[in-house]
Amino acid sequence: MTEVSPASNSATYYLPHHAVFKPESTTTKVRVVFNASSPSANRTSLNDILYAGPVLQSDLKIQILKWRYFRFVFNIEKMYRLIWVDPKHTQLQRILFLNPDGDIRDYELKTSWRSVCCNSSLTTKSPQYPQASQVIRHFMYVDDVLAGADSKTEAQAKIRELKGRALESAGFPLRKWTSNSKAMLADIPSVGSSSKQLI
């Protein structure tokens, strides 16, 4: 985010936000929640004026049932990260926040956030990688990936495309991997906030 001058026109929107504390979490102990559905003075919220796009995820029960068909499975939680917003639209993502001196100042968020209704559509656009593209189109639920394959080789190929090429190269780092195979998890380096767990 960037500090800006207080709003001088009506083409701005201030996002209400608060912190959520989860001390037992191994990766994110403090998380900020924004509310883009909160109405402004004219009774209109940011989500009211945005095009949400089509519903891209299927029913969670369907995703879990599809996942059970594979011999080798893997699951990635919290894939969702941030997307840069065009600078001409950041005035619609203003917040009030304390600066380093403890004074309340105006800031504009330079990236998109989970509470904004169009993010689901933006984050599941298919990359130009066949294995990863198939997983993103058919085996995602919001920001979780529930996928697998009938052979170890095919599963590893999907993981490579998802991790190294399609998502992380675009700024979507993957973490919290789960699998029914130690071999699958062994191929995923424990770097930064990545965590691995055997089902």
Short précis:
The chain has 199 residues and is an alpha+beta fold. Helices cover 24% and strands 23% of the residues. The protein has helices at 46-49, 60-67, 119-123, 130-138, 152-167, 182-186, and strands at residues 2-4, 17-21, 30-34, 72-77, 94-98, 104-108, 140-141, 144-149, 175-179, 196-198.
Characterization of this structure:
The chain has 199 residues and is an alpha+beta fold. It has one domain. It has six helices and ten strands, in the order E-E-E-H-H-E-E-E-H-H-E-E-H-E-H-E. The strands form three sheets. A five-stranded mixed sheet has the order 7-8-4-9-10, sandwiched between helices. Strand 2 and strand 3 (30-34) form a beta hairpin. Helix 4 crosses helix 5 (152-167). It starts with a strand and ends with a strand. The model has no long low-confidence stretch (mean pLDDT 79).
Main β-sheet description? 5 strands, mixed
Number of domains: 1
Q: How many beta-strand segments?
A: 10
Shape designation: elongated
Overall pLDDT level? 79
C-alpha Rg (nearest Å):
19 Å
Query: Beta-sheet strand percentage?
Result: 15-25%
Order of helices and strands: EEEHHEEEHHEEHEHE
Unreliable stretches, pLDDT < 50, 5 or more residues? none
- First-residue to last-residue Cα separation: 38 Å
Biggest sheet strand order reads: 7-8-4-9-10
Q: What count of helical segments does DSSP give?
A: 6
Helix content: 10-25%
Structure class: alpha+beta
